[in-house]
Amino acid sequence: MGWFWAEKAPAAPVAPHPMPRGNAEPPPACPMHKKATPSAKEVPAGACPYVPPETASNASATPATEAPKQGFLSRLNPLNNMFSDLDNSRSDEQTQALPLSRETSTIPKGDGSLWEYPSPQQMYNAMLRKGYTDTDVTAVESMVSVHNFLNEGAWAEIMGWERRFSRGIVDGYKICKEGEERANHVLGTAEDPFDTTTWTDASIPPPKLLRFTGRPTEPTPKSQILQWLGRVMPDTYGTAPPFDRHDWFVERCNEKGCKEVRYVIDYYEGAPEPTGEPVFFLDVRPAIDGPIGAAERMVRWSTDVFWRASGGEARILKKVEEAQRQRKEKATEGKRQYN
Questions:
Q1: Is residue 27 part of a domain?
Q2: Could you tell me which residues are beta bridge partners of residue 104?
Q3: pTM to 2 decimals?
């Protein structure tokens, strides 16, 4: 729960979820980079859902004698604060053509339309406007693909929470009480728990992403606790800190009306695949802005842990076997009476 794009959990487990190991900096193929901004900054409505945060100061505040930072990991991702006029024309510095089409996400906006991701050409132009003239044009398409993939993964996790708790804690408990696997069967996502579109409750509308903000220099309490545990018990809880943190604000509607729910997302880097592909882990959960958010997190975590620890699946299997035995006995008894 809360993890994305990994075939299996990392070797070092932590509670309540396994954490990745390795360098806290994202790999070169990834468009997400750590920033030093001291405060959160919301992005314009035309931007895309995942937008890494802005630097602490603008270009005018930088001393003239200071050399501009170079190197892929030190660069500002322009998608953090995408320009309102997304230039989609080829740049004079460009050595090869880039796709101009924009991919539409599966994430609905507040007005019902879908968020759009920037085209590779728009991303490249934005990076040039930020002053990063040594951007490898051949890597831009991969950067956009990873960026879009992470957005879809974050939204899939949020959809999982909303399917469980959109109607409230009581209904959420009924869905969660027999563990994650059975909850996915109830919700119709057993084959693909990371489904971003399935919404089986026809009586209430699905959630919408209203806005989002990056807060990389404000670690979440959970990530801080895990880092503290890692210092105390490194063999058990040792892990690199998240390389980014985002808050997504989601509209949740039910019979009582609509309200805004804040979700917190910690982004972790995992060990790359044998093929060299980067791996990321997303820890997505409702923010504890009040008792409701805390209760949702506790219900989902505790019910799954209790169900597995108490042998819930074994009890269900025993009941099924007992029911099968009784049916066989009745069938045998009926044959005897007939004979």
A1: no
A2: 116
A3: 0.71
